[in-house]
């Protein structure tokens, strides 16, 4: 068993098909099939159930899978480390919250892409839960998520500090006006958003009943619904400031315990921190300072 065998095994497991794995690995199906059979013979265990729709992992295959992924990642890290001579270059896949992408990333990206043109940067948005999972599963080199995050496999660093605000339709002049409505519908990102739980907690302490939330995937849609009086949401103040200035929504300050949320950068301890990752963070950290001073 060698690294190539494990890479083929991982591709077959992920694709659920010998043929699709062969296409991904730029080889022929007969080669993939032969390598899997030799691997099964060497290990003395059947790794896949074969059927007309493709293949499924056996219990033994499921036990082997995490090791194959770790090996693939170690090989990628080894290649990156050997080629990394201190100048940021090559692929960099990062995740970020939708709100952080809108509020913090434009200035960071503008500077980073000009300063480090050889980096092949990909930014993906998601909720805190989904982004943390993607980092843990080696799908992202790192991610900006809402803190705190505690996990034995993750290194975390606070990068930004956001002042939150309760965002409502303009007709609500104060939180007290909102409390008189009795039942409130929340406008939130999909399940896994850390702001969602905080919003429900704030409304509960105000004595409000929270009805079934409306889930959206974009800030514009959320602010549009709030402006139309459909419900309320919780967002970093900077994200909703423009809509407030335009007279579309009202922003309400929160108690200190609810008002501030750290945005932390998470990455795995066991993954090589490339020059590209370090260069991105070196730019992001100074960008945070003016916003913190004005908050």
Automatic annotation (TrEMBL):
Pfam families: HTH_1, LysR_substrate. The keyword Cell membrane does not apply. The keyword DNA-binding applies. GO terms for molecular function: DNA-binding transcription factor activity; transcription cis-regulatory region binding. Keywords: DNA-binding, Transcription, Transcription regulation. Residues 1-58 form the HTH lysR-type domain. Belongs to the LysR transcriptional regulatory family. This is Transcriptional regulator, LysR family.
């Amino acid at each position: 068993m060698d690294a190539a065998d494990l890479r083929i095994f991982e591709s077959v497991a992920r694709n659920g098909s010998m043929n699709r794995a062969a296409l991904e690995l730029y080889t022929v199906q007969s080669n993939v099939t032969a390598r899997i059979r030799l691997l099964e013979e060497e290990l003395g265990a059947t790794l896949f159930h074969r059927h007309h729709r493709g293949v499924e992992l056996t219990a033994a295959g499921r036990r082997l899978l995490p090791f194959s992924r770790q090996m693939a990642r170690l090989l990628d890290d080894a290649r990156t480390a050997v080629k990394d001579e201190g100048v940021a270059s090559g692929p960099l896949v990062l995740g970020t919250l939708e709100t952080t992408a809108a509020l913090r990333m434009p200035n960071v990206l503008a500077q980073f892409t000009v300063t480090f043109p050889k980096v092949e940067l990909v930014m993906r948005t998601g909720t805190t839960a989904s982004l943390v999972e993607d980092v843990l599963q080696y799908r992202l080199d790192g991610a900006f998520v809402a803190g705190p995050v505690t996990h034995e496999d993750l290194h975390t660093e606070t990068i930004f500090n956001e002042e939150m605000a309760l965002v409502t339709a303009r007709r609500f002049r104060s939180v007290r006006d909102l409390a008189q409505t009795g039942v409130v519908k929340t406008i939130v990102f999909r399940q896994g958003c850390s702001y969602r739980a905080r919003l429900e907690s704030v409304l509960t302490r105000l004595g409000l009943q929270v009805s079934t939330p409306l889930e959206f995937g974009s800030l514009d849609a959320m602010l549009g619904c709030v402006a139309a009086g459909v419900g309320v949401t919780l967002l970093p103040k900077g994200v909703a400031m423009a809509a407030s200035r335009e007279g579309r929504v009202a922003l309400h300050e929160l108690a200190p315990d609810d008002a501030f949320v750290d945005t932390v950068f998470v990455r795995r301890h066991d993954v090589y921190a490339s020059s590209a990752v370090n260069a991105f963070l070196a730019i992001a950290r100074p960008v945070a300072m003016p916003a913190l001073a004005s908050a």
